[in-house]
Amino acid sequence: MATDMTLTTQSPLAELIDLTGRTAIVTGGAMGIGQGIARRLHEAGANLVIADLDLAAAQETAASIAEQRAGSVLAVNSDVSDADSVQDLIDSTVASFGGLDILVNNAGIYPMVALSELDAATFRRVLDVNLTGLFLCTKAASRRMIEQGRGGRIVNITSIDALHPSMVGLAHYDASKHGAWGFTKNVALELAEHRIWVNAVAPGGIATPGTGDMDDANMQAFEAMIPMHRMGEPDDIGRAVLFLASDLASYMTGSQIVVDGGRLLA
Description:
By secondary structure, the chain is of the alpha/beta class.
């Protein structure tokens, strides 16, 4: 509830968005949405860890970003569905930069398979990466943040499919993203007392290497439903994540920002 309390201080905008001295992990950060997020966080001053199964791609992205600030980006091979791999990621981050302040759970997969052809192994793999991976990373990162005692930010990349199905063939993906949104809200309650804010960004259609695998008919049908008449860019998500990772979002936790060009309105 709003009050009439007068604020005696107002931080300058440049300070609110400045991430200098903070360290961020972006899972699945080598390409696509993850790369867009990584670039924005690094531009705002954060030290950056790019975690990805594709180490070569992560190293290539890290090298291109680090040109702006030497020694500020680390590439780590990580499987978010494996607890030991996740702990190694946290340990490598702390060893390189002395701590962890921001976690972006972006790693995810979305193979298009109709229910009639969906096998249990594929269903489990999608949940392992998209939901179990989010849990493992959040648990390990929040433990470190609590030990540090200075709070933190966790941003989960969900999807508009966490709110409404976008197309047939993604039942397994939609299940994982509904779970991710529910997990976000509950963990936000638990971690608030430690000054760790947990929020989500729900992308709509974003032009990435992954969406390039969709057939033309599905792509055209999806674009036709977007009121802005275009697919989003990875940087559209990067900007939203930067907002939630910064002090601009100092009074937000358990929230989800939809970035979809109006798709859910259609």
